């Protein structure tokens, strides 16, 4: 078994596209985390006699002495067959132990029905496992008919009759998008990053970005920011104003994004997480039932893992 690192975006994204990698395994996502935080991105491929076994975008963060570092592979590792995930997770963990001396590796694969090997333990959640997923493989009519709510289908058509139009966003749309996002976050009480984060994201994730705006007579009503590979389209951020809600712009916006994902070759459309809130109730209109991924897991890679985990819990209690 051999490991090698990929050092170009073109080569890495080809691996992601070819081997069913999630968009959060893309070069662009790693670049965003490098440019806006304390992570370093490593693009690891594991091969057996030159044949692909698995791969992973591994984000590495340095820790204070004596812990050295922690690793996180969002929605990784990459495998062609879900049944190979337990072995792949162990192989990527081995790379993290040997090459960056990590205290642990965290993963949260977007898969179900798989049990990891011994040594993995349930970890604190980063990406929510309970989510809403749409199968985009059937034809357009079948996808539309699969929506749980008849009202959702009606509102898609109503938005069009009320003059709502949806298009791909450009960088010039960012100020208006971010203004709307701040207002939506304030109204719905959820955390967002500062504007610089999204400005970097628009350029850094050009390999996977699908950003849409819904307008009426030039007025921004809503936006939806997705990342997409053949494995999945994944909703990251979105917002809608009062006029957009009245004109049902967010329904036509989501339908357009689903169609764009399908046309791009994505086999799944992931609405990214269900919580007990109004946003989740909106997402549930588009699916028959939630999808439950296996969750978030940590692999301790050092005897110091227990000390690190205890220190982190104490810090959260003191400064939450």
UniProtKB/TrEMBL annotation:
Q: Which SUPFAM superfamilies match?
A: Acyl-CoA N-acyltransferases (Nat) (SSF55729)
User: Keywords in UniProt for this one?
Assistant: Acyltransferase, Cell shape, Cell wall biogenesis/degradation, Peptidoglycan synthesis, Transferase
What molecular functions are annotated in GO for this chain?
A: acyltransferase activity, transferring groups other than amino-acyl groups; aminoacyltransferase activity
Q: Which residues form the N-acetyltransferase domain?
A: 164-320
- List GO BP terms, alphabetically: cell wall organization; peptidoglycan biosynthetic process; regulation of cell shape
Classification via Pfam families: FemAB
Similarity remark: Belongs to the FemABX family.
The protein here is known as N-acetyltransferase domain-containing protein
């Amino acid at each position: 078994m051999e490991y090698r690192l990929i050092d170009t975006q073109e080569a890495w994204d080809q691996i992601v596209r070819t081997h069913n990698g999630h968009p959060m395994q893309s070069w662009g996502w790693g670049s965003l985390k490098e440019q806006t935080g304390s992570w370093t991105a490593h693009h690891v491929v594991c091969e057996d006699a030159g044949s692909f076994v698995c791969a992973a975008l591994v984000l590495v963060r340095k820790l204070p002495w004596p812990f050295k570092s922690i690793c996180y592979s969002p929605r990784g590792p990459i495998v062609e067959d879900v049944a190979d995930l337990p072995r792949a997770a162990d192989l990527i963990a081995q790379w993290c132990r040997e090459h960056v001396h990590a205290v642990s590796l965290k993963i949260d694969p977007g898969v179900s029905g798989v049990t990891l090997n011994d040594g993995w333990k349930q970890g604190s959640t980063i990406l929510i496992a309970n989510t809403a997923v749409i199968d985009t493989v059937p034809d357009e009519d079948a996808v539309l008919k699969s929506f749980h709510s008849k009202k959702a289908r009606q509102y898609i058509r109503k938005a069009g009759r009320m003059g709502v139009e949806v298009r791909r966003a450009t960088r010039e749309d960012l100020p208006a998008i971010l203004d709307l996002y701040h207002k939506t976050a304030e109204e719905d009480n959820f955390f967002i990053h500062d504007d610089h984060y999204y400005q970097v994201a628009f350029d850094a994730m050009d390999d996977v970005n699908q950003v849409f705006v819904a307008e009426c007579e030039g007025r921004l009503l809503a936006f939806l920011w997705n990342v997409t590979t053949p494995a999945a389209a994944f909703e990251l951020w979105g917002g809608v104003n009062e006029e957009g809600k009245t004109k049902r712009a967010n329904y036509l916006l989501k339908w357009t994004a689903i169609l764009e994902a399908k046309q791009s070759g994505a086999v799944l459309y992931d609405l990214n997480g269900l919580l007990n809130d109004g946003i989740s109730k909106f997402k549930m209109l588009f699916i028959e039932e939630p999808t439950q991924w296996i969750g978030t897991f940590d692999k301790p890679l050092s005897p110091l893992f227990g000390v690190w985990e205890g220190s982190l819990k104490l810090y959260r209690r003191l400064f939450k």
